């Protein structure tokens, strides 16, 4: 199979090189802002893409021009044998930039192998450094496991990014503590604006805080030096070095200062639906094609190409305060 020579582009000329693959909609946490407990219903097992199907999609993606794959969920480590999938992707696609997004509660014991497999980075979701608050936000008292996994990941030499959803009145008082974390350890902390995505989402204007306001709280704790190119290497985060520190602090501002013009992403949900924009509920069903021997990857390729022609601009879909979407973040993969 040959790797695409030309970049994959959408109908607006944006280069598309990044695939977020959700490997499960199940999660061992039920974060207030993501999948509140009383709203949970799971996708039936048979409807979840099998590992061979995920590998086929990565293979097709690579052929079409995808160079970066992120495994997400639900909680990727809540899926049985996900390390086998990581290993298979690495074996079949050695050049692929492979990353994971995880809540890290099931990560301890795995970072060394992930590093050995050449996983580029782990994004670890952790919204608070306070044990009781963590239990309130996530429904589980597991902050100690997360802290252990962070330490192990750093010790294994993995690049670590901590993602915290900025929740006004919930964790904004901890911004200085997060700045200290990134001062003392060589990791990135990124505060993400709370997005009104998902039907059980508790998004309220009172809980929302814009990235610029997060930054103004952070600069009270340390001197922040903007990275030269602001948004790092095509990523959505605006990062700052911490003077005298080992790590960096940054913000991701999908609402207040969107980055849709540079969006390079495709998402595939764990039940095999292609989404070209986080904020649009428009989905393309790939699973029936994948499972039909007469159609298979050839048809999937056609559908991806077609869907890309109308990949939306998220900010045109989502007006501030608009009706939240039908799928929860845990089912989309963030
Ligand atoms: N379970 C994994 C984890 O916790 O990282 C992966 C899935 S989770 C849905 C992916 C990311 O989406 C997490 O960083 C989470 O904090 C973020 N997220 C979920 N709901 C969100 C919301 N309403 N606004 C902003 N970020 C959200």
Automatic annotation (TrEMBL):
<keyword id="KW-0949">S-adenosyl-L-methionine</keyword>
<keyword id="KW-0501">Molybdenum cofactor biosynthesis</keyword>
<dbReference type="GO" id="GO:0061799">
    <property type="term" value="F:cyclic pyranopterin monophosphate synthase activity"/>
</dbReference>
<feature type="binding site">
    <location>
        <position position="260"/>
    </location>
    <ligand>
        <name>[4Fe-4S] cluster 2</name>
    </ligand>
</feature>
<feature type="binding site">
    <location>
        <position position="277"/>
    </location>
    <ligand>
        <name>[4Fe-4S] cluster 2</name>
    </ligand>
</feature>
<keyword id="KW-0411">Iron-sulfur</keyword>
<dbReference type="GO" id="GO:1904047">
    <property type="term" value="F:S-adenosyl-L-methionine binding"/>
</dbReference>
<dbReference type="GO" id="GO:0046872">
    <property type="term" value="F:metal ion binding"/>
</dbReference>
<dbReference type="Pfam" id="PF06463">
    <property type="entry name" value="Mob_synth_C"/>
</dbReference>
<dbReference type="InterPro" id="IPR010505">
    <property type="entry name" value="MoaA_twitch"/>
</dbReference>
<feature type="binding site">
    <location>
        <position position="263"/>
    </location>
    <ligand>
        <name>[4Fe-4S] cluster 2</name>
    </ligand>
</feature>
<keyword id="KW-0456">Lyase</keyword>
<keyword id="KW-0479">Metal-binding</keyword>
<feature type="binding site">
    <location>
        <position position="33"/>
    </location>
    <ligand>
        <name>S-adenosyl-L-methionine</name>
    </ligand>
</feature>
<keyword id="KW-0342">GTP-binding</keyword>
<dbReference type="InterPro" id="IPR040064">
    <property type="entry name" value="MoaA-like"/>
</dbReference>
<feature type="binding site">
    <location>
        <position position="20"/>
    </location>
    <ligand>
        <name>GTP</name>
    </ligand>
</feature>
<dbReference type="InterPro" id="IPR013785">
    <property type="entry name" value="Aldolase_TIM"/>
</dbReference>
<feature type="binding site">
    <location>
        <position position="34"/>
    </location>
    <ligand>
        <name>[4Fe-4S] cluster 1</name>
    </ligand>
</feature>
<dbReference type="InterPro" id="IPR007197">
    <property type="entry name" value="rSAM"/>
</dbReference>
<dbReference type="InterPro" id="IPR006638">
    <property type="entry name" value="Elp3/MiaA/NifB-like_rSAM"/>
</dbReference>
<dbReference type="GO" id="GO:0005525">
    <property type="term" value="F:GTP binding"/>
</dbReference>
<protein>
    <recommendedName>
        <fullName>GTP 3',8-cyclase</fullName>
        <ecNumber>4.1.99.22</ecNumber>
    </recommendedName>
</protein>
<feature type="domain" description="Radical SAM core">
    <location>
        <begin position="11"/>
        <end position="236"/>
    </location>
</feature>
<dbReference type="InterPro" id="IPR000385">
    <property type="entry name" value="MoaA_NifB_PqqE_Fe-S-bd_CS"/>
</dbReference>
<comment type="pathway">
    <text>Cofactor biosynthesis; molybdopterin biosynthesis.</text>
</comment>
<keyword id="KW-0547">Nucleotide-binding</keyword>
<keyword id="KW-0408">Iron</keyword>
<feature type="binding site">
    <location>
        <begin position="265"/>
        <end position="267"/>
    </location>
    <ligand>
        <name>GTP</name>
    </ligand>
</feature>
<feature type="binding site">
    <location>
        <position position="195"/>
    </location>
    <ligand>
        <name>S-adenosyl-L-methionine</name>
    </ligand>
</feature>
<comment type="similarity">
    <text>Belongs to the radical SAM superfamily. MoaA family.</text>
</comment>
<dbReference type="InterPro" id="IPR050105">
    <property type="entry name" value="MoCo_biosynth_MoaA/MoaC"/>
</dbReference>
<dbReference type="GO" id="GO:0061798">
    <property type="term" value="F:GTP 3',8'-cyclase activity"/>
</dbReference>
<feature type="binding site">
    <location>
        <position position="27"/>
    </location>
    <ligand>
        <name>[4Fe-4S] cluster 1</name>
    </ligand>
</feature>
<dbReference type="GO" id="GO:0051539">
    <property type="term" value="F:4 iron, 4 sulfur cluster binding"/>
</dbReference>
<feature type="binding site">
    <location>
        <position position="125"/>
    </location>
    <ligand>
        <name>S-adenosyl-L-methionine</name>
    </ligand>
</feature>
<feature type="binding site">
    <location>
        <position position="101"/>
    </location>
    <ligand>
        <name>GTP</name>
    </ligand>
</feature>
<feature type="binding site">
    <location>
        <position position="70"/>
    </location>
    <ligand>
        <name>GTP</name>
    </ligand>
</feature>
<dbReference type="InterPro" id="IPR013483">
    <property type="entry name" value="MoaA"/>
</dbReference>
<dbReference type="GO" id="GO:0006777">
    <property type="term" value="P:Mo-molybdopterin cofactor biosynthetic process"/>
</dbReference>
<comment type="function">
    <text>Catalyzes the cyclization of GTP to (8S)-3',8-cyclo-7,8-dihydroguanosine 5'-triphosphate.</text>
</comment>
<comment type="subunit">
    <text>Monomer and homodimer.</text>
</comment>
